Amino acid sequence: MITMWNVRMRASKDIVPQAVNLSKTRIRHELHISGAEGIYDSPAITSMFSEYLTRALHHPRGKPDKIVITIEQINEQIMRVPLLPLTTTDCASPAQAREMLFSALLSLGITRKAVNNCLKVISSADTIRGASLISMKSGRRSEPDRERGVRVSRMGIEKTSERRLGTILSATNLNTSTVKEALILASKVASYPDIIAEVCISDDPDYTTGYLAGRQFGYRRIPNIKVPGEMHGGRVFFIKDTANIKALIGYLEKQPVMSYFSGLSRDR
Ligand code: WAQ
Ligand code: MG
Description:
This protein is an alpha/beta fold. The protein has two domains: about 5-75, no CATH class; about 80-260, no CATH class. The protein contains six helices and twelve strands. The protein has a six-stranded mixed β-sheet with strand order 5-10-9-8-11-6, sandwiched between helices. A three-stranded antiparallel β-sheet has the order 2-1-3, with helices on one face. The relative contact order is 0.20. The model has no long low-confidence stretch (mean pLDDT about 90).
C-alpha cells in the first residue's frame, strides 16, 4: 500500500487586544491568518510544503508571525466519499443571500431560530477558527469549545479526480485552490448522516462568494454573500438534535477521507 500523508498549515499573528474588534467577554491574542490541508503521497509532499508556505506568507488577511506546517503519516483506513455536485446561484447582495439561505434551510426542516443563530455566528466580528455545530431544531450551539469551533481535518481528493475536477472548473474560471478546497471540505462534511447542511462565508476580506452545501443541495455557490473588505467569516454545520457529538467530532477531525469525482453539473 502507498503511504499517504496529511499535510496541514496554519498561520497566525499575535495581536494587541485593542487592535481588533473583540467581544467584551474574552480576550484573544492571536489572529488567525490562513489554514490549509490535504492528503498526499510521498512524492507530492515537498511541493505542497512550499505551496502552503507561500500561501501563508502572502495572505490578504495579513502577515503572519507564526506558521506551523504539520506532516503526519496516515495509518487509518481512508474512507472515500463522492464530491458534491457544484452549482452557482444568482445572488446580488448579502440581503438576497440571507433570503436564499432562509428558504433553503427551512425547507430542510431547520428552524428559523437555528438559521438566525447561524447568521449570528457567520457575521460576528469574532471569527472562530473552526465550525460551529448548530442543532437544527433547538438552534443550540453544540460545539464544546466555542472559541475554536470544530476543525475539519484529514481530507483530500484522489489524483485522477483532481485532474478531472480541474478541467471542469477551468471552463468557468473556477479552478482555484479556494473553490477546490472548500468543495473537498464540504463533501467530507456532507457525507456524515447526522449533518443536514453547511453554510460558509470566507474570512478573507476580498472573497465575497460563500456557499450552502448538503446532500440535498450539493455544493451551491452564493456570490455576494458579504461585501468586500469584511474580515469576518465562518462555517456552520446544522446537525440533527439527536446527534452523538463526540462521534461526529471524531469523524470531522480524525477520519481520513478522500473524495472522488462523481459528475459535477446538476440542473437546478
Ligand atoms: N474546519 C472547520 N471550519 C473551518 C475550517 C476547517 N478546516 N477552515 C476554515 N473554517 C471556518 C473558519 O471559521 C473560517 O473563518 C471560515 O470557515 C472561512 O474559512 O466556491 O475560503 O478558509 O467560491 O476563509 C468558499 C468558496 C471559500 C466558495 C471559503 O473559507 C466558492 C473559504 P476560509
Ligand atoms: Mg480564509
